[in-house]
Structures are given as structure tokens and as C-alpha cells.
């Protein structure tokens, strides 16, 4: 698996817009490659100079991109060609309501941006998408190194306290699921939320401050040693039948206003976090249902 810093594939037919986006992203030290034939880039291990190319970790596509080329590429749902890892796709549109029909057509839609793209918002969304790609790449690598014995398990109850335990459980249970590259995103986010926001009561605003100051890891470690939090557990129930896979995750926190996090709104476009539940709902699970207070969530995958 290639762990080099991923590139951004830009699919923008308008030369002026393409140049502006390239300038914005290269100034943030992103490597951008533009093309009118996406699969030539996605399935090639070499760059334009014949050197080994970094993997593509994000696709930025204008919704005026040639539909004929798009329909024959690996980007559309149902394509015969599939990539080894799903790549987040950000659609760019001039529609006033920031809705594009491409959202329903492309694989792994991540977000839609309004054109002309605000540089700050563009950079923030790109960072979030690249971070997701890298996170999933790491988890998939762990999955590849594990035994597949979990695939024989039809039910189980697990208890955990730390983020390391959550990561290990995520990679283990994902082996029992189809489309591991999607499920691993959702399950990882739900378990991380249960620990950080649930048991350790690190709220959205506090997490923003801790990320900004670089103290999130230290704060988590400190809280896990405090009498108030150290005995709290996250309980995970797993079951698999011929028809569905069900995860039930319950923490011992006070709950939260989960309803506002089911979608990615403009308020969190430039935030450093807060997209996990929406991504889990959108990409990983057939259904995602919280109890009233928000300290218990049931995620279903229809088989």
C-alpha cells in the first residue's frame, strides 16, 4: 500500500477556473493534477514525467464536466472498474442552492462546493477529504494484516475505553462487513464519538479549541485518568444475519444534540471536525438511528 502524500485530481473544463483552483491549492502545498480523462490518472502508477506517482486522495469535479467521458469512467455508480480504495469526490456547482445532480451519480460523494469557490472553504473541505482518505488508508492497511476469522462470528458484545481499543475493534468488526472501505469510516467515527464526546464529555467547542492548540491527545489522556471518567465504558453489540448487520453502540455520557450533525451544514464547512456522523450516515450504513438523548446509536447495513 502506497503511504505517500496523496494528489488531488481536478476535473474542471473552464481554463480560468481551473487555474484559480490550482493556484489556491498549490499555495497550500497540495499536489494538483488536472485531466479530461480521469481514469488515465486514477489507474496509472506513473506521473507525466514517467516517475512513480502518489495515489489520488481527492477528486474535485465541476458539474459541467463532460457527461460522456464521466459516464465511461470509474467515477460513476455501477462502473465495472473499481479502485482499491474509495476516493472522496467533491462536486463544484454554480447552482444557487448548492445542489448538483452529480451528487447522485458519482461514487463516494463527499461534499458540494458553490462556484466560484471561496479559497478558505475550498482549502478546508480539501483538508477534510484528504484527512479522511489518509485515515481510511491506514485502517484498511490494518484490516489487511488481520485474520479473517471474525467473518465467522454472527454476534458479540464488546466493551472498550480507549481510542486504541476503538481502532482495534473497528478493524476487526469491519472484516465481517461488505464494502470495508466504507464501513470502516462510519464505525470508526461512531466509536470515536462515543469515547470523546460521550464518555469523556469533550464537547464540540472544546474539541475545536484543543485541536487548534494541539492539546486534544493530552486532554483525552488526562480525562481517562480522572475519577469522573475512568470507569466509563463504551458497549458495542454486533450481530449478523443473512439479511443485515447491526451495530449498537452505547456510551455512559449525557448524550448530545445529534440531530444537527446528521448533515454537513455551512457552519461546519471550515471547521476542523464535526463531519463524522454525517459521513457515517451517508457512506457506511443503510440506517443510522440515535435514541432521544444521543448516547446510544444503532447502525444497520442491509445485505
In whole angstroms, how far apart are the ends?
28 Å
Enumerate the strands of the largest sheet in spatial order, edge to edge or round the barrel: 2-1-3-4-5
Portion of residues in beta strands equals 15-25%
Shape, per Cα inertia axes: globular
The CATH topology of the largest domain: Heat Shock Protein 90
Amount of helix? 25-40%
Task: Just give the CATH class of the largest domain.
Answer: Alpha Beta
Largest sheet composition: 5 strands, parallel
How many domain regions?
A: 2
Secondary-structure content class: alpha/beta
Low-pLDDT segments: none
Extended strand count: 10
**How many separate helices?**
9
Mean pLDDT: 84
Describe, in plain words, how this protein is organized in 3D:
It is a single chain. The protein contains nine helices and ten strands. With 303 residues, it is an alpha/beta fold. It folds into two domains: 7-142, 3-Layer(aba) Sandwich (Rossmann fold), CATH 3.40.50.2300; 147-302, Histidine kinase-like ATPase, C-terminal domain (Heat Shock Protein 90), CATH 3.30.565. A five-stranded parallel sheet has the order 2-1-3-4-5. The chain has a five-stranded antiparallel sheet with strand order 6-7-8-10-9. Strand 9 and strand 10 form a beta hairpin. Helix 4 (119-144) crosses helix 5 and helix 6 runs antiparallel to helix 9 (276-284). The model has no long low-confidence stretch (mean pLDDT 84).
Amino acid at each position: 500500500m502506497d503511504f505517500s502524500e496523496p494528489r488531488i485530481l481536478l476535473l474542471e473544463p473552464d481554463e480560468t477556473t481551473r487555474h484559480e483552483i490550482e493556484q489556491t491549492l498549490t499555495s497550500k502545498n497540495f499536489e494538483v493534477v488536472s485531466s479530461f480523462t480521469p481514469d488515465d490518472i486514477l489507474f496509472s502508477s506513473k506521473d507525466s514525467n514517467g516517475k512513480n506517482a502518489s495515489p489520488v486522495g481527492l477528486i474535485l469535479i465541476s458539474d459541467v464536466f463532460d457527461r460522456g467521458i464521466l459516464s465511461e469512467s470509474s467515477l460513476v455508480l455501477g462502473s465495472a472498474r473499481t479502485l482499491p480504495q474509495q476516493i472522496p469526490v467533491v462536486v463544484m456547482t454554480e447552482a444557487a442552492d448548492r445542489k448538483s445532480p452529480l451528487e447522485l451519480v458519482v461514487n463516494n460523494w463527499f461534499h458540494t462546493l458553490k462556484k466560484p469557490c471561496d479559497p478558505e472553504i475550498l482549502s478546508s473541505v480539501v483538508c477534510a477529504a484528504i484527512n479522511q482518505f489518509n485515515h481510511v488508508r491506514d485502517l484498511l492497511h490494518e484490516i489487511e494484516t488481520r485474520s479473517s476469522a471474525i467473518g465467522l462470528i454472527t454476534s458479540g458484545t464488546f466493551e472498550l475505553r480507549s481510542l486504541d481499543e476503538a481502532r482495534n475493534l473497528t478493524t476487526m468488526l469491519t472484516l465481517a462487513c461488505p464494502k470495508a472501505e466504507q464501513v470502516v469510516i462510519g464505525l470508526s467515527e461512531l466509536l470515536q464519538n462515543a469515547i470523546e464526546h460521550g464518555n469523556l464529555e469533550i464537547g464540540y467547542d472544546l474539541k475545536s479549541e484543543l485541536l487548534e492548540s494541539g492539546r486534544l491527545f493530552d486532554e483525552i489522556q488526562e480525562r481517562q485518568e480522572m475519577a469522573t471518567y475512568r470507569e466509563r465504558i463504551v458497549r458495542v453489540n454486533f450481530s449478523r444475519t443473512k439479511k443485515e448487520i447491526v451495530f449498537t453502540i452505547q456510551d455512559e455520557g449525557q448524550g448530545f444534540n445529534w440531530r444537527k450533525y446528521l448533515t454537513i451544514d455551512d457552519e461546519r464547512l471550515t471547521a476542523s471536525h464535526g463531519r463524522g456522523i454525517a459521513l457515517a450516515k451517508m457512506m457506511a450504513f443503510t440506517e443510522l438511528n440515535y435514541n432521544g438523548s444521543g448516547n446510544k446509536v444503532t447502525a444497520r447495513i442491509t445485505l
